[in-house]
From TrEMBL:
This is Cell surface protein. The lineage of its organism: Bacteria, Bacillati, Bacillota, Bacilli, Bacillales. Pfam families: MupG_C, MupG_N. Residues 236-333 form the 6-phospho-N-acetylmuramidase C-terminal domain. Coiled coil: none annotated. Gene3D superfamilies: Aldolase class I (3.20.20.70), Cyclophilin-like (2.40.100.10). Residues 2-224 form the 6-phospho-N-acetylmuramidase N-terminal domain. It comes from the Bacteria. It comes from Peribacillus simplex NBRC 15720 = DSM 1321. SUPFAM superfamilies: (Trans)glycosidases, Cyclophilin-like.
Length: 336
């Protein structure tokens, strides 16, 4: 599952919602307790929720005990007729309120802070696991995102009880203020290519949401192609290899990814037979006989081979994607 985030005082929120919906992304997150947001928030919220409903978008809202005062409403159930069908509970809600709210809303618990005793108390209170989502925080401040080992420990706990897990990646392009440092769940993702961060998260969680409003550089398009079609998009620099879709061999080589159906019968003269590095794109030349023309991507640094031409490389920002490639996967190479 892929989702976007929009915020009440973002002037481009309408454009984000429409863009995502047109790509088939029908899930969105918003927060209803951001201290920096001021003004007639209910009016703005109603406008965005009506637009979301018109485009078939399902909205989950982050709420805290401050939300009621923040919006000027009397009770959380007032959010239901406004179009919010799911809420994510920040810290501070007691079990009685959690159980009560679960009878009205699709309920998301804070996956980053809840411990197993607290989770068991909720479950023993009568909330069915299939009605819950374990949804991690995002972290606006640099250096405060989750440690990876802790993230996996928390996820193991929720998986034990059959509860789906959602998490955030930073946006591409514009970042939410006031810090503009990105909104990832994992600190390691803060400065990473958001697309690579999303692909990595999909190996561990059911729902990946873009925390910031920015989805430039075809972020949603590429995530959707991966999730729906298992196509992983990688950018490259090459004067010889054409942009296009290629399929990896199903057998896994130790040192290289081998692209199927790239061998040729015409001559491939030896050229640029230099040392190869992680991410180098190569083509076997005439000296390799029947392997002539086979294209490979290096998994690690390799020495020069007079039978192998170096014809390009994966751009540095996309190198992390190589570790996420699977046997037989379709890879979409795009020349930058």
């Amino acid at each position: 599952m892929i989702g976007i985030s929009f915020y009440l005082q973002d002037p481009h929120a309408e454009t984000q919602i429409i863009h995502a919906a047109n790509l088939g992304v029908k899930k969105a997150f918003t927060s209803l307790h951001i201290p920096e947001e001021k003004g007639d928030l209910v009016k703005r919220m109603i406008k965005l929720l009506k637009l979301s409903e018109a485009y078939g978008m399902e909205i989950h809202a982050d709420v805290s005990l401050n939300t009621l005062d923040h919006l000027g409403i009397s009770k959380f159930t007032d959010l239901w007729p406004l179009g919010i069908k799911g809420i994510r509970l920040d810290d501070g809600f007691d079990n009685e309120m959690i159980i009560s709210l679960s009878k009205v809303f699709s309920l998301s618990l804070n996956a980053s802070t809840l411990n197993e005793d607290e989770l068991l108390a909720v479950l023993e209170g009568g909330v069915e696991p299939e009605r819950l989502i374990a949804w991690h925080n995002f972290y606006p401040r640099l250096e405060t995102g989750l440690e990876e080992e802790f993230f996996h420990d928390q996820n193991r706990m929720f998986k034990k009880y059959g509860i789906p897990i959602f998490a955030f990646i930073p946006g591409a392009g514009s970042k939410r203020g006031p810090l503009h440092e990105g909104l990832p769940t994992l600190e390691k993702h803060r400065l990473m290519n958001p697309y690579a961060a999303g692909i990595e998260l999909f190996q561990h969680v059911e729902g990946v949401y873009v925390g910031d409003q920015g989805t430039e550089n075809n972020l949603l398009e590429n995530l959707t192609a991966y999730k729906n079609l298992n196509i992983l998009t990688v950018r490259m620099e090459s004067n010889l290899l054409q942009s296009g879709q290629y399929k990896l061999r199903p057998d896994v080589s130790q040192d290289v990814f081998r692209l199927q159906n790239t061998r040729v019968t015409e001559n491939v003269e030896p050229s640029n037979t230099v040392a190869r590095s992680l991410g180098s794109i190569t083509m076997d030349n005439d000296a390799y006989g029947r392997y002539r023309g086979e294209v490979q991507i290096c998994k690690r640094d390799l020495g020069a081979n007079h039978r192998v031409n170096v014809i390009g490389r994966v751009i540095e920002e996309d190198i992390p994607l190589l570790s996420l490639l699977k046997p037989g996967q379709t890879i979409k190479l795009i020349n930058e």
